[in-house]
Amino acid sequence: MVEISVLIPSKVGEHRLPAAIKSIHDKDLNIEILVGIDGSDSNLIKELDDLKIEKLMVYQFNNDTGTTKILNKLLLITQGEFIARMDADDLSLPKRLSIQVNFMRENPEITIMCANALEKGGALMMKRARGFLDYKDFLNNNPVIHPTVMMRKSHLTEGNYAYNNKWKKSQDFELWTRISRRKKIYYDSEPLIQYTKTFNLKGFSKQYFYFKIAQLKNLVWHLFKNSSSSKLLVFRVFFVFLLMPIDYLKIVIWNRINAK
Fold it and tell me: What is the distance between the terminal CA atoms of the chain, rounded to a whole angstrom?
């Protein structure tokens, strides 16, 4: 049986993808790497073939499928006991998969293990102590760095968890909020990847829109269905949520000024 399935969605012409694959490939583990390219790219396919990595499977989706649907399609064909995520423009740090799979085996109650990441220059992305993440951690923001995630496939299957195809952006946050209501998510403060931060106003706008929908959906769930949540806390976050369009407008204005 395959131990770990690594899922990597990619855009056409992603020149950093071969390096990302080489960084996460671990010859000491029984792994498969599934790459989903959103389009057709013969040059990239040749570069990946030249890596000569066993159990590297590349799929091309030619109908502008989108990251969310690609991830779900790859999930359906995974053979691994554990599912690891990786982005095409990031680099995994040495022994990343070994560290995670050992932790998951020692803690069978955990559904997701995520970790910190290094930004360009070596700074840590997150300033958070290691430990379990509960519902309060998902009310305001997304504490899970998507490409650091390892998930237990049996828990995903039992709970019928998958990315929501309606979410073109922030699909990870929407999934984590649902999983956190029933399962255990653990965060490790030690970095496991070198993260590439990218920003463009159009992409940010779309991600902001989907994030806010997912956040509202999560707030409503905790307000009406989670008897153990603090209603005062949820109401306070909901009020802050209503003011977020003002902050978004500030960001848009700032970016347009500085783009000139």
Answer: 55
Task: Give burial (CB, 10 Å; 0-12/13-18/19+) of 17.
Answer: buried
Which fold does the domain 4-194 belong to in CATH? Answer: Spore Coat Polysaccharide Biosynthesis Protein SpsA; Chain A (3.90.550)
> Which segments of 110-230 does DSSP mark as H helices, in order?
153-159, 171-180, 201-224
pLDDT value at position 228?
85
| C-alpha torsion sign, points 36, 37, 39, 43 | negative
* Cβ(147)–Cβ(90) below 8 Å: yes
How far is residue 249 from each of residues 140, 173, 190, 254, measured CA to CA in Å? 18, 22, 35, 9
Give the model confidence (pLDDT) of 137-163 as tens digits.
Answer: 999 889 999 999 999 999 999 999 999
pTM, 2 dp: 0.90
Three-class SS of residue 4?
strand
Beta-bridged to residue 36, according to DSSP, are 9, 59
| Alpha-carbon span 210 to 149, nearest angstrom | 20
CATH 3.90.550.10 range(s) for the chain read 4-194
Structure tokens given for 210: 């989907």
Q: Can you give the pLDDT at residue 82? A: 98
